[in-house]
Amino acid sequence: MLDKPENSFGYTTKVSVSQAQKARFLKFAGDTARVAGAQTLPFFRVNTDVENKHTDGRFDPVTEADRTAERTIRDAIGRTFPNHGIYGEEYGYKPGNGLTWVIDPIDGTRAFMSGMLHWGVLLALFDGETPIVGAMYQPYTDELFLGDREVTHLFRGQNKRLLRTSTCEDVSSACLATTGYDWFSTEDLSRFERLKAAVQMYRLGGDCYLYGAVAMGSVHIGTDASLNAYDIQALIPIIVGAGGVVTTYDGGNPSMGGAVVASANHTLHSQVLDLLQTT
Amino acid sequence: MLDKPENSFGYTTKVSVSQAQKARFLKFAGDTARVAGAQTLPFFRVNTDVENKHTDGRFDPVTEADRTAERTIRDAIGRTFPNHGIYGEEYGYKPGNGLTWVIDPIDGTRAFMSGMLHWGVLLALFDGETPIVGAMYQPYTDELFLGDREVTHLFRGQNKRLLRTSTCEDVSSACLATTGYDWFSTEDLSRFERLKAAVQMYRLGGDCYLYGAVAMGSVHIGTDASLNAYDIQALIPIIVGAGGVVTTYDGGNPSMGGAVVASANHTLHSQVLDLLQTT
Q: Which pTM was predicted?
């Protein structure tokens, strides 16, 4: 059981959820992420040179895509679970009954703007202590990662694949991935540098997608700093459901973000946290 | 007309190619990259934990995928153009009649190993001075970038899209992308840092795929150092065909690799080369 995060949207208790309820929430998360993701595609790889000639003022396709997707998700939650709270990147926080949907309509905004592929729609349900279901959907590749802390699947077209993290238990054989250095504080960067020096290989870039790679076993350690709750919550049930571990750099509850690290398994994570210790 | 690269596989003259021949080479490049790319997919995202239990010794899916794809391409060239030369990452150089096919069976090997999406099969035809057709195929997303220095298309499923680079003519508004810092010499890194300081936004990661993003107009400047001929040749006709410019950091012929930079247009490229000048 994870410790209570410091800021849990003001709630002081964890809401109990039955298996049947959780299954319903999981299905809703996947379906809703798909619908919202499809709505971002008309804004992906548009020619802003052309669009800016046709509109008054500057056309910002990313902002449009972000807002459209988040409104769609908030509307679906409002219709289906009117008592639930909502916390989203674009439209902020709306309190509810203790269960809170946490939305990043496009995680990897810069990747989206650059026409690259490592971005996705993130949707999680937070129970006051931890996210219990999580969906990450990449609409261009039609990949839906869906996890509930017990099991994780990757859906693509008609395919459904059970995901398992790697059995790599040695940090010196591990592949490490992080989105980039700009989000690290000086202290977090020096902690990260120790980890980077210990692994076999590291990769830059990735945003949410690198945590999907952790879940599928091809990346062994994923980390980013300065995360918001909406950047990481959806990914936690996906990673944990595939057999992985996610904490802050100090081993705490990662639900509210900050400097967060995910490993393929507990043995590896223990080595990772040792390397990340403040000296 | 570009200057002659220093090493042109030993050839001293440029081979003239008719429009009809070029069209045939372009089609061959696209078709062959597709076939080879399809052969890499069985090795993508395989569970090496499992595979290593079933084989004697260590199963290396990337090496297998690389070699299989390059053999397929070399066989197709041998059947179709028996007099042409071949230069590939895995199986080296075979001299020919002055036209040389240049192969990177998987560009972005580490991305491939990590289960990420920014990698592709690269195939170019070099005329002794410059690559005249180029294909980049990402089989997982089924995207084929195909260019002949005059026109560039992106094929995906039944879709065919004409690509045009951005009209961004101001480096301070530009989005810059590079695969990572590890390939820069100290001097090239300091040149790159001046460029990075001048742009609006930069992205890390990408390998060949970032040059596809330059061709489609969503990245304005792409650069990497320590490139081999097979890392860049296929991308040159794609970028140039979409309206972009590619040279070495000193403005020379990029065909043999090294520190290479691609810009969306000549105005932007001139600013980029000024920033990259040795001080």
A: 0.93
